[in-house]
Amino acid sequence: MKVTCGIDWSEKHHDVALLDQDGKLIARKRILDDAAGWKALLELFAAHGDTPQEPIPVAIETGRGLLVACLRATGRKVYAINPLAVARYRERHTVARSKSDHADAMTLANILRVDAAHHRPLPTDSELVQAIAVLARAQQDAVWNRQQLANQLRSLLREYFPAALKAFQVKNIGLTSREARAVLALAPTPARAAKLTKPRIIAALRRTGRERNLQAWADRLHSIFREEQMRQLPMVEDAFGKQALALLRQTDAACQAADELAQATSEVFHQHPDARIVTSFPGLADLTGARILAEIGDDRERFADARRLKAYAGSAPITRASGKSTVVHHRKVKNQRLAAAGYVWAFASLQAAGPRAHYDHRRNVGDRHSSAQRNTFNRMLGCLFHCLRTGTPYDEQQAFGPRLAAAA
User: Fold this and answer.
1) What domain range is 78 assigned to?
2) Residue-wise pLDDT tens digits, 42-98
3) Does position 408 have pLDDT exceeding 70, yes or no?
4) Does residue 158 sit in the same domain as residue 63?
5) Model's pTM, two decimal places?
6) Residue 37: what pLDDT?
7) Alpha carbons 28 and 188: distance in angstroms, whole number
8) Which ranges of 270-394 does DSSP label H, i.e. alpha helix?
């Protein structure tokens, strides 16, 4: 690389440093985080040999934001360097622990100058898969937020209204269900719940869209709410009820956001040509498939082989060997979103014969549930890498043929 660029990013301004191949500083500039700053950065690049055929590569400590998006749109290589790695590189040049924005920009440029081969540039994903990533991650965040609110509501109800928890401990029915939210909105306290009549319960359930077993539901809830139970003092109980109503309003908004984002994610996901291959795998439906594709991307050169992808997802084990000591354990540094989606994928895939046979084999050789499931995810991820590279859908006989024969 003849010229390398390092950008120390911040919310309001960015420090830019350009180094030549000998490590000499040839330009430095502070630009604002706006269109004028972007224009100034392009002019700085052009003045030092930047061309469409040989764009100047850039190292920066983040992989998101408008500046990164604009840099990627120019077709240049953009390296998102972990801030911890930057701190370690900084210690190569100074032991005084001095730090400045300009020095960090020079450190980033030096990383590219001497160690670019050891860092991976941001993938050249298509616009469509980038849109899928935005929606899939937003939907995943909405689901996590919904569950967090449900946990808060469960803890609150345990303080003063345990009968509500008993009422909705039903398969596929929880505190985030429409039925639970509708009934609790009518009766957030034990006193108000005890006064609910069966017709009012049926009316509330019908407003949620439920049409079956209304009378059975009403009889069950009416019986539970009228059972003898421990109670808080009246004023304290009313205060808890108001807090529960506030949490219910937040939960309603989180549930609505998760549902709307799920629909939007599914619509965009099916526009991608890789959706056909991804959804051919057992356990991968629209949402889980969109999350997997969002984190993998559609840049076929991003991962040199399946082992790189497995390490990125955290499904491949890591070995620490020193002297006579050798320890193999799971990875902690990984793409957390991909690992979370992989856990759901591996669990759902156990309904198919091939993944189930592989999981049972791992359990029989002594793996715990989490280890066997992670190993199943590791195997499925390798199959997905092969199918995406070759453009072929999932074939269970090719993926788990020997294991299926052994299980039979």
Assistant:
1) 3-122
2) 999 999 988 988 999 999 999 988 999 999 999 899 999 988 888 888 887 777 777
3) no
4) no
5) 0.88
6) 92
7) 62
8) 275-278, 286-296, 306-313, 336-349, 353-364, 369-390
